[in-house]
Amino acid sequence: MAPNSVTEQRRSGFCRAAALFAGSLVLFANAAAAEPIGLGWPQPNGPGSPVYITYSYSNLLDGSFFLTSPDEFRAATEEALRLWAAYAPVNFIEVQDSGPPPSDSPYLADHHAQIRIGHQDMADLANAYYPGVDGLAGDVHIATGIPWTIGEGHWNFLEAITHELGHAIGLEHELVEPAIMNPSYPFHRFQGLGSGFLFPADIRAEQRIYGVGVGSVQPLDPSPEPTTYLLVGGGLFALFLAGRGRMRLSPSGVLTAASLTSLVGRRMTRKHRR
Ligand SMILES: [Zn+2]
Fold first, then answer.
1. pLDDT tops 50 at residue 31
2. Which CATH superfamily is domain 3-218 in?
3. Worst-scoring range by mean pLDDT, 60-69, 117-126, 166-175, 185-194?
4. How far is the CA of 216 from the centre of ligand 1 (A)?
5. Distance, CA 164 to ligand 1 centroid (Å)?
6. What is the pTM of this model?
7. Which residues contact 129 (CB under 8 A, 6 or more apart)?
């Protein structure tokens, strides 16, 4: 078995601990103390060299939450990934999701993303799996029944996802110094998009695994390229004009960028004259 399979199916204590927050801080400490030593994703050329980690959204962006939109979930997740990519050579690459729906049932890694982010019904607030070789390794789940917010609020997704992604890349809880990876969850250190940060203890812990460096976050672009906007918009505009008998499409029906420029120019000129 690969060395990093040791912790492949162990859940982080964060979410279970967080769910017990109101009940007992002692349980927190116990849960955290029982955690294994985290190991990172493969880094063939050793600390300080690039690590490539794929991620995907299993069902996080399916619109199941009233207070947070899919765009906000995506933006917060990317911000959290950028925080971890700022201090170590970890490169997060979004891929199209594949694999089973989010659950804690083991599955084969196959070619699914290493970190799959989704929600599920669960008693805990969230959970995350340490790096490993099976499908669940690296996966992050948040609870479906929590009113997650992005801005100021008790259930701050930005802080939660930053913490959980820390586990997903191999970090344990920080038990001494202030850290995003503290097992207790203050809920109010981040105020909204753009307010995320890591503490020195978080950065040191990450660099102990991966070395010092700078990584990257490469999301899939969900939006059409600007030129596509232009052509689609131009096509609709052309149809509008055609419908009003003010132009004829070419026999092939193809609208080129050049003809679009001409059309827009004529249209704007006509409007300007009014
Ligand atoms: Zn945790």
1. no
2. Collagenase (Catalytic Domain) (3.40.390.10)
3. 185-194
4. 23
5. 6
6. 0.71
7. 8, 9, 10, 11, 12, 136, 137, 138, 139, 140, 167, 168
